[in-house]
Design goal:
The termini are close together. The protein has a 4-stranded parallel β-sheet with strand order 1-12-10-11, sandwiched between helices. A 4-stranded parallel β-sheet has the order 7-6-8-9. A two-stranded parallel sheet has the order 2-3. Strand 8 (151-156), helix 6 and strand 9 form a beta-alpha-beta unit. It has 279 residues and is α/β, with parallel strands linked by helices. The longest helix has 17 residues, at 13-29. The model has no long low-confidence stretch (mean pLDDT 95). The relative contact order is 0.16. It has helices at residues 13-29, 42-49, 76-84, 95-109, 123-132, 162-176, 191-206, 219-231, 265-277; strands at residues 2-5, 32-35, 53-56, 66-69, 88-91, 113-117, 136-139, 151-156, 182-185, 209-213, 233-237, 254-259. Bound molecules: FE3-S4 cluster. FE3-S4 cluster binds at residues 12-15, 71, 94, 96-97, 158-159, 190, 192-193, 220, 261.
């Protein structure tokens, strides 16, 4: 059995930056709370809890007048509400998410409908939509013309795959271009997502089995598993304990590993050790 990790794997710059900022703040200021989990990974949330960083589901649940905003960001309404209550904000919003928020705001202010290609229930998407106000909608299916203004801007959730975004934009053009006056497309897929996906696919093509490590609630991890499963037998696992040795029966040995942007190194290392133990 040969085990190979993807060239780009695990924590992205945005997640690493958010965790560093919060750990530093907790060290200086004492116990803190994040609005929702800092990233979609239970091991990271548990580790931060041991440093005194816990999760609040709303501003009403804050125990102190300090709020940490996660790398997924929030809409401006949340910031305004926190500021009006005199709450200090530690904002770890990823710069790539901030770029998508800025694009949504600019397009909405210029009178465009803002279509965000992504999961309407994901926190990042909800935050970006907050910047588009009444003009925003999130979807993975081309919306009907009745929901759009004559001028339309399309953005993507930062963790979508480029082929999926490309296909959405193409379908949109095919369906609506004749009737809209202006279309702007802003590619807001983040660089880390692109690099993770490219490295995962490159490895998947050379592997007999792919393991994708990370939370089932993590959008970018799910996307990696979807992409890899198109080219090779792929298993999405959260931890090493979920590995089933029967997955490798009859396979002649090259196992590829990739992991989502919120998966810590320790969890990836445990997967490698468990596989090493099966050799
Ligand atoms: Fe940011 Fe992309 Fe990571 S949006 S948090 S660098 S997956």
């Amino acid at each position: 059995m040969r085990i190979e990790k993807a060239a780009e794997i695990g924590f992205c710059t945005g997640v690493r930056r958010a965790i560093d900022m919060i750990e530093k703040a907790a060290g200086e200021m004492g116990p803190l709370q994040t609005l929702g989990p800092i990233v979609h990974n239970q091991q990271v949330v548990d580790k931060l809890a041991s440093c005194g960083v816990t999760v609040a589901d709303s501003l009403d649940q804050l125990k102190r007048d300090i709020l940490c905003i996660s790398s997924h960001g929030v809409g401006p309404q949340v910031i305004d509400e926190a500021e009006s209550r005199g709450i200090k904000i530690i904002d770890t919003t990823c710069p790539f998410v901030r770029r998508a928020q800025g694009a949504a705001k600019k397009l909405a202010n210029a009178g465009f409908s803002v279509v965000v290609f992504g999961d309407e229930n994901h926190r990042e998407v909800q935050g970006v939509l907050g910047y588009a106000g009444e003009k925003g909608l999130a979807t993975v299916k081309v919306p009907p013309f009745s929901k759009l203004s004559p001028r339309v801007g399309i953005l993507s959730q930062t963790t979508q795959s480029f082929p999926a975004f490309h296909s959405f934009v193409s379908s949109f053009i095919q369906k609506h271009l004749e009737r809209i006056a202006e279309l702007r497309v802003v590619n807001t897929i983040c660089d880390a997502t692109r690099k993770h996906q490219e490295a995962a696919l490159e490895l998947a093509k050379r592997s007999d089995v792919m393991l994708v490590v990370g939370s089932r609630g993590s959008a970018n991890t799910k996307r990696l598993a979807e992409l890899c499963s198109v080219v090779v037998d792929t298993h999405h696992i959260e931890t090493a304990r979920e590995i089933d040795p029967s997955w490798f029966t009859g396979k002649d040995g090259h196992i590829g590993i990739t992991a989502g942007a919120s998966t810590p190194d320790e969890v990836i290392d445990e997967v490698v050790s468990r596989l090493d133990g099966m050799k």
